[in-house]
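Design request, C-alpha cells follow.
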C-alpha cells in the first residue's frame, strides 16, 4: 500500500511540474524543489534530441554524407540555449575589442 501511495505522489508531483504552477521553492523540501525544477528541463532535452534525430533522418534521404554531417554537427554545436546568446555576445565583443 505504501508503494502505491508513493507512486501516486510521484505522478502528482510530475503533473504539477508539467503544469508549471508558480511556487515558492525556498520553502519546503529541497528534494521536491529539485524534482519539480528538473522535469521541464528533462522534457526539453528529450524534445531537442528527438528534433535532431528527425532532422538527420530526413537529411539522410538526400544521400549526401556531407549534409548529414553538417546537420549532425549543427544540432550538437548550436542548441537554442538562452545562456549561449549572452556568452556568444561577450566573446564577440571581446574579439571586436582585440581587433581594434
Amino acid at each position: 500500500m505504501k508503494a502505491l501511495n508513493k507512486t501516486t505522489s510521484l505522478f502528482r508531483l510530475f503533473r504539477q511540474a508539467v503544469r508549471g504552477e508558480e511556487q515558492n521553492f525556498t520553502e519546503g523540501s529541497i528534494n521536491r524543489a529539485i524534482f519539480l525544477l528538473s522535469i521541464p528541463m528533462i522534457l526539453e532535452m528529450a524534445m531537442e534530441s528527438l528534433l535532431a534525430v528527425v532532422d538527420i533522418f530526413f537529411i539522410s534521404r538526400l544521400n549526401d554524407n556531407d549534409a548529414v554531417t553538417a546537420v549532425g554537427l549543427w544540432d550538437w554545436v548550436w542548441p537554442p540555449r538562452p545562456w549561449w546568446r549572452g556568452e556568444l555576445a561577450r566573446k564577440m565583443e571581446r574579439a571586436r575589442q582585440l581587433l581594434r
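Comment from the thread starter after seeing the answer: thanks! The mean pLDDT is 79.
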